[in-house]
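Hi team,

Below is the intake form for Interleukin-12 subunit beta from Oncorhynchus mykiss. Please confirm the fields before the structure is written into the shared record.

FORM ID: S-0412
PROTEIN: Interleukin-12 subunit beta
ORGANISM: Oncorhynchus mykiss
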Amino acid sequence: FLHTEPVQILDILCLLLWCVLSPVVVVNVDGSLVQHPLTCLGSFNREEEGWRRDNDWIIWMMDEEEKKKGNSFLVNLEERTGGGIFTCHSLDKTLLKNTTVLVKHLDEEKRILEGSTRTGIQDVCFMKCSTRNYQGEFHCSWKFTPTRFGTVMFVKVARGLSDAENISCSVDASGQQWTCSSSSGQSDIMCSVNSSGLGVSCVDRQYCPYAEETDRITLTIYMRTNYLLEEYSKCFYISEIVKPDNLSIKKVNSSTIEWSYPVSWNRPISYFPLSFQVKEIEGRKCKNGCTCDSPYTEVRTTVHTTESSQWSVKAKVTVCVRAQDALCDSPWSDWTEYRSVPHSLVYCIQQNLSSRTPSCSM
Ligand SMILES: *[C@@H]1O[C@H](CO)[C@@H](O)[C@H](O)[C@H]1NC(C)=O
Ligand SMILES: *[C@@H]1O[C@H](CO)[C@@H](O)[C@H](O)[C@H]1NC(C)=O
Ligand SMILES: *[C@@H]1O[C@H](CO)[C@@H](O)[C@H](O)[C@H]1NC(C)=O
Ligand SMILES: *[C@@H]1O[C@H](CO)[C@@H](O)[C@H](O)[C@H]1NC(C)=O
Ligand SMILES: *[C@@H]1O[C@H](CO)[C@@H](O)[C@H](O)[C@H]1NC(C)=O
Ligand SMILES: *[C@@H]1O[C@H](CO)[C@@H](O)[C@H](O)[C@H]1NC(C)=O
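The structure came back. Fields below:
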């Protein structure tokens, strides 16, 4: 059960400058005891080998505690424990090498992010991804479990590439902005981990709004807490996650409203049509104030239309309107609410405007 094969991400982590003196080693653990060998100094040249054979002058330490003498050290990992920072020193305590060992459990159980693993390849419920339009941008967010807070160690993102193909990812000096591109140039996506650490904002720089997407985007986040590393991925088309922004509703006259396409939505709208849903909640059904999300069954009208954006409003009715891409079964926008005021009150407001005399009695 000796695992000597580090996971793929090690190579990519090694792009980071500190790799040589301070390597990060990720060891896969499957539940049984895994022993991972570390060496302090690389291969000795033959002449030196004789006097260095015992290597008694190398001291291994973990957490300030001396563990062993010699050039090699065997780290014991079991379940999710055993990871840490292992340093080796010469007798005068000079630091020779500083290795961080992270444990990655191969089971499906996740500990860092809130959610659940569905059977299958995707961690569907750990990350939520969404975009407001077909511009090639998207945002994914997550929540930490109450007892843990993770940091993003590595981001890998590509469209339509199998693992066998070459994707190279690099990170900028801030350590927060990742760029992954394929050697063929067919995938080029940049993601920034946001300052709260609760999401990434990405842009697909090869995206074309007018072409049908032939391949899905796969986003993989390596999340670390202490010395535990977990991998979360999500795979989607932009057209599956597009959720339009709120609509804006304006009043045409006392009995008519009009909504318009969100400013952020793609133009021309003939090429990117939205379908609208309207529901009306009678005022007396929600005396204590109700919102469009309230689970009222007394919905008077629900329509689907891509056509008319005008709607006649009856008095004392709350009108709720939302939108969805008319061509895909992607998420609905949030509701935009319009509360019609009683006609008498509308009359008052109009009077106020025209006469400027505060003569309204309700
Ligand atoms: C080893 O590296 C880790 C992570 O970079 C750092 O926190 C730690 O202080 C280093 N230890 C020594 C002894 O330099
Ligand atoms: C990946 O890159 C390596 C070296 O850059 C190259 O030898 C190999 O052929 C590439 N593999 C693919 C599938 O492109
Ligand atoms: C970071 O992303 C989270 C999740 O989407 C969001 O709630 C938060 O407002 C974002 N923070 C910043 C500073 O953008
Ligand atoms: C309000 O506007 C609509 C559409 O322009 C029109 O059909 C209707 O007659 C108007 N109603 C009033 C009271 O002005
Ligand atoms: C969308 O509208 C809802 C209700 O009208 C409101 O609560 C929400 O903040 C709006 N969202 C945005 C992004 O404007
Ligand atoms: C009409 O105007 C007066 C004073 O400008 C204000 O107090 C009153 O609330 C207004 N009425 C309505 C219905 O807006």
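SUMMARY LINE: The pocket of 2-acetamido-2-deoxy-beta-D-glucopyranose (ligand 1) is lined by residues 22, 85, 87, 95, 98, 100 (CB under 6 Å).

Thanks, M.
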